[in-house]
């Protein structure tokens, strides 16, 4: 596992954040962003669930630090769910909005949970460099097409859709050891992910 961060342009963060966070343009800097991950409440496979949670932690760390290894060594500041609601389980994380870049970690996690299931071709199955290149191109094309069909992100430019595909593909490579278990969990137990922004004194979740 590399210590490289998840690289994302500020323009893509802004475009995605505005699309998935209604009211962001009117939000004050003391607002909070909530990320709500919904999963099934029964038949949760522990080892696959642990890989899913580890992926979220890694994505958060890679988007908050220039060197993921410094995040991994730190005893504080890790990705945290502030609460869990029953029904289908809702795992709720919150983060102060602060400056515009404050939404970046949650934007990256949101994109990963939306589009990792589309990156179903494992590069580890490729038997030579040519095959790896072919699978990479196929994966990126599939992700671009899915982003294009997504109503929430319909305003992204072709360049931004290509950047989303690159980010998802890079995450698949960086977290290759987790991907088989993550994909199983997402196929069997993951339901959806959403984000919202509220004023600091409100609790809309």
Q: Characterize the largest beta sheet: strand count, sense, and whether it forms a barrel.
A: 4 strands, antiparallel
Number of helices: 7
- Structural category is alpha+beta
Poorly predicted tracts of residues? none
**Separation of the first and last Cα atoms:** 34 Å
Topology pattern, helix = H, strand = E: HEHHEEHHHHE
β-strand amount: 5-15%
- Mean of the pLDDT scores? 83
Count the beta strands.
4
**Strand order, biggest sheet?**
2-3-1-4
Shape: globular
The number of domains is 1
Q: How big is the Rg?
A: 17 Å
Helical content stands at 40-55%
Provide a short characterization of the protein structure.
The protein is of the alpha+beta class and about 200 residues long. The chain has helices at about 10-20, 45-65, 70-75, 105-115, 130-150, 160-175, 180-190; strands at about 30-40, 85, 90-95, 190-200. The protein has one domain (about 10-200).
């Amino acid at each position: 596992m590399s210590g490289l961060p998840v690289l994302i342009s500020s323009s893509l963060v802004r475009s995605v954040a505005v699309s998935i966070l209604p009211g962001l343009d009117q939000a004050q800097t003391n607002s909070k962003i909530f990320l709500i991950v919904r999963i099934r409440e029964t038949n949760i496979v522990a080892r696959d669930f642990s890989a899913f949670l580890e992926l979220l932690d890694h994505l958060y760390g890679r988007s908050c630090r220039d060197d993921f290894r410094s995040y991994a060594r730190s005893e504080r500041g890790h990705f945290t769910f502030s609460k869990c609601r029953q029904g289908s389980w809702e795992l709720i994380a919150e983060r102060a909005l602060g400056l515009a870049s404050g939404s970046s970690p949650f934007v990256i996690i949101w994109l990963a949970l939306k589009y990792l299931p589309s990156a179903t071709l494992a590069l580890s199955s490729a038997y030579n460099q040519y095959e790896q290149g072919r699978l990479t191109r196929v994966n990126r094309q599939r992700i671009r097409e899915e982003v294009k069909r997504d109503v929430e992100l319909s305003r992204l430019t072709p360049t931004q859709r290509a950047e989303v595909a690159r980010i998802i593909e890079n995450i698949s490579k960086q977290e290759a050891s987790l991907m088989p278990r993550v994909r199983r969990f997402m196929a069997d137990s993951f339901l959806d992910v959403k984000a919202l922004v509220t004023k600091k004194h409100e609790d809309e979740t």
